[in-house]
Specification:
Layout (H helix, E strand, L loop, with lengths): L6 E3 L6 E2 L5 E5 L2 E5 L6 E3 L6 E3 L2 E6 L4 E8 L8 E9 L2 E10 L2 E10 L1 E8 L7 E8 L3 E8 L5 E7 L7 E7 L7 E11 L6
Antiparallel strand pairs: 1-17, 2-7, 3-4, 4-17, 5-6, 7-16, 8-13, 8-17, 9-10, 9-16, 10-11, 11-12, 13-14, 14-15
Amino acid sequence: MTHSTKTQTIEWSTGSWTHPPAAERTDGTTLIVSAIEGSDAWRHTSYGFVHDSEHALVAPLKPGSAIEVSFIASFDQQFDQAGAFLRIDETKWIKAGVEFADGQLQLGAVVTNGKSDWSVAPVPEWSGRKVTVRASLASESVTIRARVDDEPFRLVRVAPFGPDEDIKAGPFCCAPTRSGLEVQFLSWIVTDADGSLH
């Protein structure tokens, strides 16, 4: 995998919320978001319900670009989650990041095109550390990678996405089962898309 070292920091004030959180504040360059209890993004599969209440701070993302969202993964309640969100509309979107599920932190992605699918892998050693999620947008697909601290990025998912549709992307968080979740987002940057898959 190769990508440009040119990066542009996106100001928190640039984005617009898909659904406003309970509260947000900045502390220096850090954005601290308080999630609403019951917030989530999911459509139909297995559970039968539609949840469209995630807190995603999004701005336009063009093919040939990538976003990287960094945050502290301090989660300890079922389905606490944060990462990067890519949205075309309410039925076509992707959320990728880490989520506390079944007693430990999980790295994964939900890809939704009418109905959601979910893939995860355990990363308990990432708990309490800086996690960066990278979403690289090509003309007809998105490649999701993630890392902890300054370790190498690992591949999470390659999925069809687009083409020829307006895409918005940025950081997100949800708290499906509890109140009081605060997420510290450290940075939101845009850079060139990955030069290759491997």
